[in-house]
């Protein structure tokens, strides 16, 4: 194992260790070195975090490096072997002198048969030398111990000396202890790395201070804050530091050109030790989280489906309108869309939303004409629990609140009741709402798109629409022309829907007779694209190559050309062809609109105008 290094003070221990490791089937590097040489070896072997050694060598490695050291202790059998050897040499008063990490760290005296034995653990080499000299002065006649004690005894000419060897049992126990420690460290490091990785990858910045206001931990985001926020990089003790930090708690500040919200948690580790944990949350992340929660719980299906690419057209008029709408999408200003029923106002609103910077945010569509007058306020602004009889227990978010950060589309805004118009005006001015029954104001960030098929100025004149609201919503204006004013788009749209609805067409191209296409192009299409789409859907299920014009008229329920009393005209035979033609047109215009007359006579508005001159 690369995390463990065995450093033997001398070769005998190294050989024993090598044999034991081979027997255990474990690969641990074993080197022979002592004292400072051993220290240098431990430092140079960087991958090893645990060192197995003995005596003074183990002590020097522990004090001079940051390695974890496992001591080779001496087993009782090792001590008894050395004592028996000295007793056999005739010693009656024996001292066992060694480092306290080899023998038991307690001074005791006991009898071993006829021999007196004292245990003398020492702190370091100097203590060993001093201990042996004092024992020599008392007349000791046998010294057992580590290499330093034996050498000192030899220098004092103490004849009976015995080196306490580390046997197989002691070395095996040290190796097993090191393996258990390495396994524990490995698990601990893995947990720490996992935890550090998790903390580094969260969006919040975290800085931890100790009770002396020194930074003891920070994640990546926290390190960036320390670097760019001078107040949080203070490491020296500061008298008012805590007061300063708590002054920012719950406040929004700007760091790294980004708005962040600071929260502070006090962690009492012990009675006398506590940490201040600073958590910095990006305001943009908080808003994104709130939006996701809204989307998950309250905004299912509130998204825009249409894009500009989905709009079928070939007329220059529509090309200019869509170019204008594309430019409007770049703005956050309110858009007002005029257009007859069925011209595609909501599709255009959705396209503007999807081309804007709010494309990933909610799109809420509201038909003001379809909301019951008794429920319109609660639907738009929401209500709290107990606001009125029948209210939900948990309250309800209104459509404006659901559209927060996105777009709200108010269709048929001309049908909005006057009292609601005043509330809407305040929402647009203040960008704030209040739920029914609540006492709290909620700020909202919305883009408003309105649509109507009515002339709002006429409604203002009749007292049915607020003039101040009109000027608030009439910022960017688009007028969608009816199909009869962009006849170039009729057949491309008709073929598109026909192609969409015809089942099992096998990719064969669709082509209608010229009589039918001329008829469809001159048909007034009062329901505009909606009517055209419905007609194409019906025709798709009755389509065959021999479809006739009467069948198409029947599908469109077009009876303008059928003979009835209303269609009987009085013709003055005394006039010329031009006056007779003009008389016919005038009689038709008394009964039908100009568009209907053009459709019946299969002429354009320009031709009608010219013939009436």
Protein model, in words:
- This is Transcriptional regulator with PAS, ATPase and Fis domain.
- Residues 311-541 form the Sigma-54 factor interaction domain.
- InterPro entries: AAA+_ATPase, AAA_lid_NorR, P-loop_NTPase, Sig_transdc_resp-reg_PrpR_N, Sigma_54_int, Sigma_54_int_dom_ATP-bd_1, Sigma_54_int_dom_ATP-bd_2.
- It is a single chain.
- The chain is of the alpha/beta class.
- Helices cover 44% and strands 18% of the residues.
- It contains 24 helices and 23 strands.
- The protein has a five-stranded mixed beta sheet with strand order 6-7-5-8-9, sandwiched between helices.
- The longest helix has 34 residues, at 168-201.
- It is elongated and about 165 Å long.
Any key phrases for this structure?
44% helix; ATP-binding; elongated; 23 strands; nucleotide-binding; five-stranded mixed beta sheet; 613 residues; single chain; Sigma_54_int_dom_ATP-bd_2; P-loop_NTPase; alpha/beta
**Count of separate DSSP helical elements:** 24
Give me the side-by-side strand order of the main sheet.
6-7-5-8-9
Proportion of strand residues: 15-25%
Radius of gyration over C-alpha positions, nearest whole angstrom: 48 Å
Unreliable runs, pLDDT <50, ≥5 residues?
A: 560-565
Secondary-structure blueprint of this entry?
Blueprint: E1 4-8, H1 11-24, E2 30-32, H2 35-44, E3 50-53, H3 55-64, E4 68-71, H4 76-88, E5 93-99, E6 108-112, E7 115-122, H5 125-137, E8 142-145, H6 147-155, E9 161-163, H7 168-201, E10 205-209, E11 215-218, H8 220-228, H9 241-248, E12 252-255, E13 258-270, E14 273-282, H10 283-297, H11 316-329, E15 335-339, H12 345-354, E16 363-367, H13 376-381, E17 382-383, E18 396-397, H14 399-402, E19 407-411, H15 418-430, E20 432-433, E21 442-443, E22 447-452, H16 456-461, H17 467-473, E23 476-480, H18 490-501, H19 514-522, H20 528-540, H21 549-556, H22 577-591, H23 594-601, H24 605-612
Helix pairs in contact: 1-7, 2-3, 5-6, 11-12, 18-20
């Amino acid at each position: 194992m690369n995390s463990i290094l065995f450093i033997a003070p001398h070769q005998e221990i190294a050989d024993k260790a090598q044999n034991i490791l081979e027997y255990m089937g474990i690969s641990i590097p074993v080197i022979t070195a002592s004292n400072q040489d051993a220290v240098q070896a431990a430092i140079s072997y960087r991958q090893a975090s645990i060192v197995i050694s003995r005596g003074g060598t183990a002590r020097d490695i522990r004090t001079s490096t940051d390695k974890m050291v496992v001591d080779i202790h001496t087993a009782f059998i090792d001590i008894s072997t050395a004592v028996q050897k000295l007793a056999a040499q005739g010693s009656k008063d024996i001292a066992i002198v060694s480092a306290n990490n080899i023998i038991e760290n307690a001074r005791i005296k006991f009898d071993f048969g006829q021999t007196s034995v004292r245990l003398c653990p020492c702190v370091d080499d100097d203590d060993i030398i001093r201990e042996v000299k004092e024992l020599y002065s008392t007349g000791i006649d046998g010294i057992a111990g580590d290499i330093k004690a034996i050498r000192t005894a030899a220098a004092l000419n103490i004849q009976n000396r015995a080196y306490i060897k580390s046997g197989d049992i002691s070395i095996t126990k040290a190796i097993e202890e090191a393996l258990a420690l390495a396994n524990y460290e490995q698990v601990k490091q893995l947990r720490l790395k996992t935890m550090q990785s998790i903390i580094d990858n969260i969006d919040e910045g975290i800085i931890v201070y100790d009770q002396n206001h020194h930074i003891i931990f920070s994640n990546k985001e926290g390190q960036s804050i320390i670097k760019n926020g001078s107040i949080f990089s203070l490491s020296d003790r500061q008298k008012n530091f805590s007061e300063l930090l708590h002054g920012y708690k719950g406040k929004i500040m700007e760091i790294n050109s980004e708005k962040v919200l600071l929260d502070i948690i006090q962690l009492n580790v012990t009675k006398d030790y506590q940490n201040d944990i600073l958590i910095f949350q990006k305001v943009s992340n908080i808003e994104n989280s709130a939006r996701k929660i809204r989307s998950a719980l309250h905004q299912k299906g509130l998204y825009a489906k249409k894009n500009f690419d989905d709009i079928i057209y070939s007329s220059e008029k529509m090309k200019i309108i869509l170019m204008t709408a594309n430019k409007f999408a770049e703005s956050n200003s309110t858009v007002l869309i005029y257009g007859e029923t069925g011209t595609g106002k909501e599709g255009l609103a959705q396209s503007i939303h999807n081309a804007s910077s709010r494309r990933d945010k909610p799109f809420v569509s509201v038909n003001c004409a379809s909301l019951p007058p008794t429920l319109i306020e609660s639907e738009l602004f929401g209500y709290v629990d107990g606001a009125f009889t029948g209210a939900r227990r948990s309250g309800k978010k209104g459509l404006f609140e659901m559209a927060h950060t996105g777009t709200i589309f108010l269709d048929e805004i001309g049908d909005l009741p006057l009292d609601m118009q005043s509330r809407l005006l305040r929402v647009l001015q203040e960008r704030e709402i209040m739920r029914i029954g609540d006492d709290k104001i909620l700020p909202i960030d919305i883009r408003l798109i309105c649509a109507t098929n009515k002339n709002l100025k006429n409604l203002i004149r009749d007292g049915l629409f607020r003039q101040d609201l009109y000027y608030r919503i009439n910022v960017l204006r688009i007028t969608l022309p009816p199909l009869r004013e962009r006849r170039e788009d009729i057949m491309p749209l008709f073929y598109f829907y026909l192609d969409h609805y015809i089942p099992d067409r096998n990719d064969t191209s669709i082509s209608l007779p010229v009589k039918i296409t001329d008829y469809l192009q001159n048909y007034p299409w009062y329901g505009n694209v909606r009517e055209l789409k419905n007609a194409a859907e019906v025709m798709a299920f009755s389509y065959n190559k021999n479809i006739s014009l009467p069948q198409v008229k029947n599908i469109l329920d077009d009876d303008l050309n059928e003979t009835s009393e209303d269609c009987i005209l009085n013709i003055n035979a005394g006039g010329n062809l031009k006056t007779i033609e003009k008389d016919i047109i005038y009689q038709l215009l008394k009964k039908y609109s100009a568009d209907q007359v053009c459709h019946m006579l299969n002429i354009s508005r320009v031709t009608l105008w010219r013939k009436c001159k």
